[in-house]
Every structure is written in C-alpha cells, then in structure tokens.
Amino acid sequence: MNQSILFNDDMTWDASLQQLQFTAQSSGARIICQVTLSYLQKQGLSSEEAKEIVGFAQLIQFDIEEDAQQAIADEHLENGILYLS
Q1: Class of the domain covering 5-84
Q2: Cβ(10)–Cβ(32) under 8 Å?
Q3: C-alpha span between 76 and 9 (Å, rounded)
C-alpha cells in the first residue's frame, strides 16, 4: 500500500447523488472520493438500501481503495474530487 495516500474511515451513502462518499489524503491534500451505484453493482452489490450499500462497500473496501489509489496516481481528479464509476 502506498503510504502517501491515506484513506479515512468515513464512508457514507448520499441517496440524492446515488453515490458512496469517503475522503482520502494524498501528499497532504484532501480528496473527496465518490463511488457510483453502478460501480458498486459491477462489484456485486444487489441492494439499493443505504445500510446494505455501506456494508457492502466496507466488505470490498480494499478493492475500492486500490482503484482509488490507481486513479489518484493516474491524476484522475477533478477539483479535488475523485470519481469511481
């Protein structure tokens, strides 16, 4: 794991945006990570209930962080926001 990227344990589901959100820090910069429902469904999510979505995301947290880490390394940020879809 790249120690210059720290993922915070603050996953929340935003029903209005239909996205899971959490934050990370890379080289001291705060990054907002937004994970779409379709991304989670591609990973195997079969529910649209907030509690189950967050629970599923926690189960695959390391996979999400790996994808986020790669996207950060590839500089796929838009105004400090990283989107995984």
Answers
A1: alpha beta
A2: no
A3: 22
Reported as half-sphere exposure (CB side, CA atoms, 13 A), residue 50 has a value of 9
The two structure tokens encoding residue 13: 């589901």
Note the pTM of the prediction, 2 decimals. 0.88
Q: Among 43, 36, 31, which Cα is nearest to 82's?
A: 31
Both structure tokens of 54: 């967050």
Site of tokens 């986020």: 68
DSSP letter (8 states) at residue 18: T
> What are the helix and strand counts (H, E) for the chain?
3, 6
Per DSSP, the three-state class of 83 is: strand
Tens of pLDDT, residue by residue over 22-42, are 999 988 899 999 999 999 999
Is residue 51 pLDDT above 70, yes or no?
yes
